[in-house]
């Protein structure tokens, strides 16, 4: 992205980076990227996200998203979804089913490249304050925190009352 780049999966912190994404979509040694159908995206949102994703500025449903699976040794090991509104792209969800193998990083890089290919000049992603592992991945990938949405989880809970008060590492979800 020639301008800024933002990151996050759900409300909370927003990240940005001036780093350009030069990775072209394509094979990475040992893995391949496969498109995700709307039906598969819907199944993932139902299983992992309560059917919808609620970042600060809008609500996403499966029909709003494009996505791709990272496949390794015949298994789907990560799923990334994204959307674009004009020049602004958003990585909406990033689920690495096998963590610590680089599959999430590969999925993130693919989504960045796809958004750039689709014409986005800026990208963003939101994540919760308890998602410290993902925050580290985003920062190492060149993204920067640009905004913290205080008490954003209150808006999420208004639409998804089953979201817990406490998240990973015993941290309050705010």
Describe it.
This protein is an alpha+beta fold and 174 residues long. It has four helices and nine strands. The longest helix is centred in the middle third of the chain and has 15 residues, at 103-117.
Task: Describe the structure concisely for a colleague.
The protein has 174 residues and is α+β, with helices and mostly antiparallel strands. It contains 4 helices and 9 strands; from the N terminus they run E-E-E-H-E-E-E-H-E-E-H-E-H.
What is the element layout, followed by pairings?
Elements: E1 6-7, E2 13-16, E3 31-35, H1 38-48, E4 66-72, E5 75-85, E6 88-96, H2 103-117, E7 122-124, E8 126-127, H3 132-140, E9 145-148, H4 152-159
Parallel strand pairs: 6-7
Antiparallel strand pairs: 1-2, 2-8, 2-9, 3-4, 4-5, 5-6
Largest sheet: 5 strands, mixed
Q: How would you state the average pLDDT, rounded?
A: 83
Task: Indicate the radius of gyration in whole angstroms.
Answer: 15 Å
What spatial form do the alpha-carbon principal axes imply?
A: globular
Number of strands: 9
Distance between the termini: 30 Å
Task: Bin the strand percentage.
Answer: 25-35%
Give the helix level as a range of percent.
10-25%
The run of helices and strands is: EEEHEEEHEEHEH
Assembly state (oligomeric): single chain
